[in-house]
Amino acid sequence: MTGQFLYLAASLAGVAAMVGLCVLLFGRGVATITAESAEARLRDDIPGFRAGAVAISSDSQAALVEDARDRSLHLVIARGSGLVSRTLSRDMVRKATRNGSALDLRLADFTFSKARVAFAEEQSASDWEARLSHAS
Amino acid sequence: MHLDPTQLATPAFILLVIAEMLFVRFSDRGAYEPRDTATSLLMGFGSVIFGAAFGFIFVWFAHLVAPYRLFNIAWSVPAVVICFVLDDLRYYWWHRAAHRVRWLWAEHVAHHSSQHYNLSTALRQPWGGFLTPGLLFMAPLILLGFPLGMIALVGGINLVYQFWIHTEAIQKMPRWFEAVMNTPSHHRVHHATNARYLDSNYAGVFIVWDKMFGSFVPEDESEKPRYGIVKNLATFNPVKVAFHEFVGIGKDLAKSRSLRELLGYVFAPPGWSPDGSRETSDSIKARWQQFRLGDDLEYRRALIETDEGSSAAA
Q1: From CA B237, how far away is CA B33, in angstroms rounded?
Q2: What percent of chain B shows pLDDT beyond 90?
Q3: What integer pLDDT is reported at residue B28 of this predicted model?
Q4: Is there a contact between A110 and B37 if contact means CB atoms under 8 Å apart?
Q5: Are A32 and A77 in contact (CB under 8 A)?
Q6: CA A7 and chain centroid, separation
Q7: Which of A92, B50, B78, B270 lies in disulfide reach of B127, CB 3.0 to 4.6 Å?
Q8: What is the 3-state secondary structure (H, E, C) of B94-143?
Q9: What is the ipTM of this complex?
């Protein structure tokens, strides 16, 4: 039993050492979002996607993008060195609340239940909240 | 004596991951990201724990089926070779089903959830096998009469083989090898989410199964694979990665209103929904074809217009 615990502890220490080496070699890769990268992500995820209005959060960690074809709204967020997108459909958005210049989203997604898009100006948050209320 | 090839190969796995990290750091081929790597390694670690905890299910199932075996095949080199080839065929069909049946996908999706493709991705092993009926695919080998130890051995060798093909460091192997064996190039296609690559190259060791059963797609140098899943996960939490699709099935079952919906949510392809509002790989491919065709028509129209313009100018 002690041997098994030692084996498990050594394995975890090995995992930690390898992750440490990875950080040393590659740094803590965190993506930043631009209008181009958000659009590229959505074009990859949705065949035929054409970007309409785009809003990038002030920390460049989130973006709201409209599909010019059908006015549907999409969220793009940075996760590690990659980007992840979600279509903000009626079923997906549980709640959208504006807190000053930030928009807080509650999503029906087990791996992605909360998102915050902080805008530079309150007006942008208000505009996108209105768009979201139309979408949902 | 119980021989576990994956356990024996673990030190080599670790050394090769470190070697690939160094290669990627000093070349422009491949990518590593610490949090993604941590998730993959922890999932590999967790799969050993879950394997040990639920291994008794395999033993129980094997002993349930074994009394009905047709032959008693003894240990010999030819028997191991035949068992290995048949087990790879078993792997192909399990793997194909794991991409086409949501219940099985719920386990397998964990392995595909990284947006990177490197040797650590090979170690991103699922934890939820005990929640699926994947073991049923083992039944033919047991019924043929192969010893259980032999089935476990060749399954382990199959898994060890599949480790090295999870890399962008190797572009192509020699032509004869690419024709017969599963390679990094073939398996990159399998892990890609590009519409043209979806649901292809299910092979474990021998790519010939895909060629025989019509699921082979070669890597197109003009279209670099994008890795991950159609709806990429926004988490690095290994527990969520391992079980999120089971949670999704549970939620869908809770709101299903008929037997058809209930069966569809469990047995239909991932992304199936009663009203067709969600995306399946088939619908994505169809839309992509449509879009490509549209693009092609626009391109041809532009060519004709240009041609007419230049004819008029001449």
Answers
A1: 15
A2: 87
A3: 82
A4: no
A5: no
A6: 37
A7: B50
A8: HHHHHHHCHHHHHHHHHHHCCCCCCHHHHCCCCCHHHHCCHHHHHHHHHH
A9: 0.90
| Position B296, amino acid | D
pLDDT at B310: 42
* pLDDT at residue number B292: 78
Residue B188: name the closest of B220, B211, B214 by CA.
B220
Nearest chain A CA: its distance from B103 CA (Å): 17
CA–CA gap between residue B25 and residue B31 (Å, rounded): 8
Chain A environment of B41 (Cβ under 8 Å): 15, 18-19
Closest CA to B126 of B101, B98, B86: B98
Compute how many other C-beta atoms are within 10 angstroms of the C-beta atom of residue A30: 13
- Residue B126 reports pLDDT greater than 80: yes
Nearest to B227 by CA among B97, B113, B100: B113
What one-letter code names the amino acid at B196?
Answer: R
Mark yes or no for CB contact B236/A81 under 8 Å: no
Task: Please tell me whether residue B299 adopts helix, strand or coil conformation.
Answer: helix
Residue range B7-23, pLDDT digits in tens: 899 999 999 999 999 99
- CB neighbours of residue B60 within 10 Å: 11
Token digits of residue B241 = 């990665």
Contact present, B126 and B40 (Cβ < 8 Å):
no
Distance separating alpha carbons of residues B11 and A103, to the nearest angstrom = 48
Query: Distance (Å, rounded) from C-alpha A14 to C-alpha B111?
Result: 21
Determine how many CB atoms are found less than 10 A away from the CB of residue B273. Answer: 15
A46: closest CA of chain B, how far (Å): 8
Beta pairing partners, B29? none
What span, in angstroms and rounded, lies between the C-alpha atoms of B218 and B241? 29
Beta bridge partners of A87: A74
- For B190-210, the pLDDT digits (tens) are 999 999 999 999 999 999 999
Of B248, B247, B233, nearest in space to B35 by CA: B233
Are residues B90 and B168 in contact, defined by beta-carbon separation less than 8 angstroms?
Answer: no
Q: Would you state the structure tokens that stand for residue A61, as one six-digit string?
A: 């960690």
- Within A18-133, strands assigned E span 51-56, 62-67, 73-79, 82-87, 93-99, 102-107, 114-118
